[in-house]
Amino acid sequence: MGSVWVREWRAVVRNRSAIINPVAFVFLGVLLFNLGSRSYEESFDGSALGMLWVLVLIANLLALDSTFRRDFESGLLEQIFVSAEVPFLILFLKVLMQWMTTGFLISLLSPLLALLMGVPYELLGNTFVALLIGTPTLSFLGAIGASLTVGMGRGGALLALLVLPLYIPVLIFGVDVSQSQSIALTEISSLYWLFFISLASLTLAPFAILLGLKISLAMD
Amino acid sequence: MKIKELWHRLGSPRWFFYYSGAWVRFFGVFALILLSVGFVWGLLFAPPEQYQGNSFRIFYIHLPAAILCQSLYLAMGVGGFVLYVWRMKLADILIAACLPLGMSLTVLALFTGAVWGKPTWGTWWEWDGRIVSTTVLLFLYIGIFAIREAISDSELRGKASGLVAMVGMINIPIIKYSVDWWTTLHQPATFTLTEKPAMPIEMWLPALVMVIGFYFFAAHNVLTRMRAEILRREAKTAWVKKLAVKMV
Predict the structure, then answer these.
(1) Which pTM does this prediction carry?
(2) Tens digits of per-residue pLDDT, B83-105?
(3) Which of A76, A95, B33, B133 is the most buried (most CB within 10 A)?
(4) 3-class state of residue B87 by DSSP
């Protein structure tokens, strides 16, 4: 298991653009939103947080295809299934590494990003926590969609169609936690929902990913 | 032993075709009767609602459409499960058959809900739990449709749509319990298994007739589509050729 993690880590480190791209996309999106909504009142109405979350969702969507693509094309994915190893663990670590390069990085940078979107100072902490808890779900549920479309040439729009409906609960609860005024995290009910979705998807999604990859591998 | 034998017999396209013929006619005839009775009863003879007047009558379409679109998705999810566990081709045919009617009924439920909402609650649309999760259901239907279009190999297409159907099943309890978890536009359920309905009998009886009528219609529609697909797939076999000769 350690060697699998080290392998994933090396694959990421040697392919720096996989890290830079999602983060750069979110920064670019923040820039675009600021340029696009030149309103002259200073009021914050919560829509900025929603837009930030949507940007995170889309950035995750763009980074999903690369989760399995390289290993699919090099044949390593088939080896995972024919070997004696437990595919669950390997897939789990693979998706976890994908999260580390997208959701995790974005949530670390989220206080800065939220500030750039005009979010008031008091909400930055809750935004960070919401993104940290919510983004693993995005990676794992998205990996289910990615596992089905990796066998197809241009899965692009199909991937978005499959994955975005699954992202909607995370968006709803995540925005609710981000906008919550309370400092005490235990009082925010949506955070419990977010945790529940997160843990459920972390534990159950790899089974669906397994089935999806079997389908994709049988397609060519 | 009998149940197991019946179950495996059901997986044979030929046996299913012969067995479902009578059921299709039964469901069709009774759907016609129940739907006509229900329509007329609900639109003309049911009493007007206390505050909404006559505009509430669209409920007699909205309720069965909403119930059916969820049931059809459940059928697809169960079909996906049967496909993976028992490897029955018929389960894939079931998923394909439930898809068109399920999508249409979801759109109908959302549309009739919007039409009902405007005069009654003053809004075409609200982002409340039930409406959002029904919209998600519509996108799940569209997603299954899209993935069926994208894969040409029949067995893999069945497996992929079965997988998406199973993963999306988590949405059904969310739709059902969203009215209990959040208080927004939709009110808590009028009909439960344990208590008396919060509605007088003259109003919910036509609704019951409509729901059963819709269920029978859905069964008729799904079975007809399944039979058509079986004939299409098995066109080269002897029993289908004999059937075609007999029908001509």
Answers:
(1) 0.88
(2) 999 999 999 999 999 999 999 99
(3) A95
(4) coil
Question: Cβ A165–B164 below 8 Å, yes or no?
Answer: no
Which residues of chain B have a pLDDT value below 50? Answer: none
Residues on chain B touching A164 (C-beta within 8 angstroms): 139
Measured distance CA(A128)–CA(A194) in Å, rounded: 13
Distance between CA A67 and CA A92 in Å, rounded?
11
Nearest CA distance, A215 vs chain B (angstrom): 6
Question: CA A182, CA B173: separation in Å to the nearest integer?
Answer: 29
Q: Do A162 and B142 touch (CB under 8 A)?
A: no
Q: What are the structure tokens assigned to B101, written together?
A: 């009617």
Q: Residue B160 is nearest to which of A148, A164, A169, comparing CB atoms? A: A148
Mean pLDDT, chain A, whole residue set: 87
Tell me whether A172 touches chain B (CB under 8 Å). yes
- Shortest distance between the Cα of A2 and any Cα of chain B, in A, equals 30
Domain range list for chain B: 24-45+54-187+202-247
B159 contacts in A (CB within 8 Å)? 211, 214-215
> Contact, A70 vs A44, CB < 8 A?
no
- First-to-last alpha carbon distance for chain B, in angstroms, is 39
Q: Which is it for the CA torsion B119, B123, B128, B131, positive or negative?
A: positive
For residue B176, give the H/E element and its range.
helix B171-181
Q: Coil, strand, or helix at residue B49?
A: strand
Task: Provide the pLDDT for residue B104.
Answer: 96
Closest CA to A110 of A74, A76, A135: A135
Instruction: Give the integer Cα–Cα distance in Å for B143 and B164.
Output: 8
Q: Say how many residues make up chain B.
A: 248
- What does the alpha-carbon distance between residue A2 and residue A220 come to, in Å, rounded to a whole number? 31
pLDDT per position as a tens digit, A80-97: 888 877 888 889 999 999
Locate B75 and state its tokens. Answer: 């059928």
- The radius of gyration of chain B from alpha carbons, rounded to an integer in Å, stands at 20
Give the torsion through C-alpha atoms of A165, A62, B146, B165, to 10 deg: -40
Q: Which residues of chain A have pLDDT under 50?
A: none
- What is the residue type of A104? F
